[in-house]
Amino acid sequence: MEAGTVLYCDVKLRVGTEVFPAHRNVLAAESTFLSTLFAGQFAEALVPIVDIREMDLRVFKLALDYMYDGSCLVPDVSTLQQLLSVASVLQIDALFAAAATALDQSLTLDNCASMLACADQHHVPQLALRAEAMARDVFVDVASNPAFPASSMVALLQSNCLNVESEEQVFETLSTWLKGQVEPLSEEEHLQMFGLVRFTLLSQDFRDSNVMAEPSFSMPRARNLVLARVPGRIVGWPNCRVATSPRSVQSPPRRFFRPRHTAKSSRGWIRVLQRSCSCCIASHTMGGKVKTFILGATTRAPL
Q1: What are φ and ψ of residue 263, in 5° steps?
Q2: Which position has the higher pLDDT, 71 or 7?
Q3: b (16+ CB within 10 A) / e for 216-230
Q4: Residue range of the domain that includes 205
Q5: Strands 49-51 and 11-15
Q6: Residue 118: which of 62, 107, 109, 57 has the closest Cα?
Q7: Strand, coil or helix: what is 9?
Q8: Domain count along the chain
């Protein structure tokens, strides 16, 4: 039985302008959302056509293929991330798990920022942990990306382990990230972010020049933030001097380390197969770019 087969169909799903004949029992068995919709007191329980709104048609077709056939062919990582989102909305647990595993296996420097955003949005802790570990290894490259999630930026700024040459790189990376935000952060959010920079680890020359040139530090509250953390005077801020405080002295240094992840995407053909009692995921990459993902049902091999 396939989606679109008219025989015995008892419901139609409409996505945009396209209508898909389907079978309630098949959809309800795979999707908790649709099962609740069909069985509850909602109007969709009785109507012949159910509208699925705000969903990409191409990605919905992949989810429908999975619900009927137990497998689907996904062309790239971006589509795979969208499929995870659809699986989350429709509550297709098996597809969500398969897509999450495939994404976890496809993590690279190039997609680390978008993977973190995806993991943060859809609550995929394993993917988030691996992506944050990679981001710590290549902090400057990954965290400069405006798509890098704010929550992950905060987590990394709080970390004692960043693979950077100096705290100056931390400040510059944060500044680049803030300037790249499509929706500018508030003054309070800027202060919270910059408050995680370890100003005592910045050189005096850097504080006098680069920090002074940062637009955020034209605000009195931002200046006070720095003055509360470093001893002495900042050039260009006349009559501003603070004594060395226990807090400024005890600012812990970052523990720099060699990266565990390669800074480049993997090369050549790679086949990854993840088996469980309900699904398998195979991905093929060439030249560092994902060619296809095959998400499909399987059974555990007998012991």
Answers
A1: -80, -5
A2: 71
A3: bbeeeebbebbbebb
A4: 109-262
A5: parallel
A6: 107
A7: coil
A8: 1
